[in-house]
Amino acid sequence: MFTDQPILRIPGPTPIPPSVRQAMSQPMIGHRTQETTELLTQVRPKLKPVFGTDQEVVILTGSGTAGLEAAVVNTVKPGEDVLVIVTGAFGDRFAKICDAYQINTQRFDVKWGEAVNPEDIAAYLKKNTSIKAVFATHCETSTGILNPIKELAKVVHDNSDALFIVDGVSSIGGVETKMDEWNIDLLVTGSQKALMLPPGLTFLAASDRAWKVMENNGNSRFYLNLQKYRDSQQKNAVPYTPALTLMFGLEEALKLIEEEDLQHIFNRHHLLRDMTRAAFKAHDIPLLTVDEFASPTVTAIRPTDFNPEELRKTIKSEFNLDVAGGQKQLKEKIFRIGHMGYCTPADILETVSMVEIGLRKIGKEIELGAGVRAAQEIYLK
Ligand SMILES: *Cc1c(COP(=O)(O)O)cnc(C)c1O
Hints:
Number of helices: 14
Protein name: Pyridoxal-phosphate-dependent aminotransferase family protein
Number of strands: 13
Low-confidence stretches: none
GO molecular function: transaminase activity
Family: Belongs to the class-V pyridoxal-phosphate-dependent aminotransferase family.
Cofactor: pyridoxal 5'-phosphate
Bound molecules: pyridoxal-5'-phosphate
Order of helices and strands: EHHEHEHEHEEEHEHEEHHHHEHEEHH
InterPro entries: Aminotrans_V_dom, Aminotrans_V_PyrdxlP_BS, PyrdxlP-dep_Trfase, PyrdxlP-dep_Trfase_major, PyrdxlP-dep_Trfase_small, SP_NH2Trfase/AEP_transaminase
């Protein structure tokens, strides 16, 4: 079959809209020219509502992990106490970055597949008063849960002076996030998830409080020094050569987001989540997470009577359909369907129907179409 028609339903990278692809084929420009000034003038105000902030959203070249590392190295110093809420592989990554900088990292581990309970964090902070920053993951991509960030922000500020730092890589642009209103101090995202771009850009926004801490932080850092980016961007300039090609795409992606309207985008992601979950429930195939904590951007399925790797291999070879496997302790135990960014209800119907064929092919007795029908019912509601 046509090998140029991959169907990418993993939680990042995600498919790129044709107009974004086209925007990225523009001729190169100089990064210290009027063209770059104009590009930044277009892009900067449009990024703010996506973060729910009036603050500058700085753009760095690097994957999401570079953004996480920037969040750590700009805010805390070696030997300082931080709390990292670990609900899966990405919380674990935040903790490992802190460890790498000799920060005194205290982990709050939550069972994978569950969201953290804000009351537990309140209790922890009451007992441990030296915590300088609390790190959390909004959507934990490895399990498909959404942590209650708004409530967490409140308990962090009610019970400590710590900065509240959030990994929003797989949520920003797909899940409502009100950085200023909720009092998030530092919010990070990446380009290749709900923002409908290729990998390679990371974005960060900080509260006034966080900027003050960063300005007075004597930690060594150079490329990841966020003040450099802020100070340049506020003059519609860049400190170093940015990934201009990706920024051409960003300008177009932000246009698409504005045209669709953020509220509509958030509702669409809820619909995609509900359609996906209904499909597997109809087949009595267990989901890893309960409805209450389910992320609108990715769904993890934990089968009991078939091998998810066998299913993944089958749908890949039959349809060139990619879904993700499990990470670390969930390796070979789950599979994950990404439904963020450039993804529509039609894509979910297509995906479910292909997965049903895959299930039959690996010998699971299911009623063909039952999952599709359940998803259709959700759509019609
Ligand atoms: C994808 C992702 C990242 C970033 O990973 P990179 O591979 O460095 O882009 C970070 N956090 C979460 C929650 C993610 O989903």
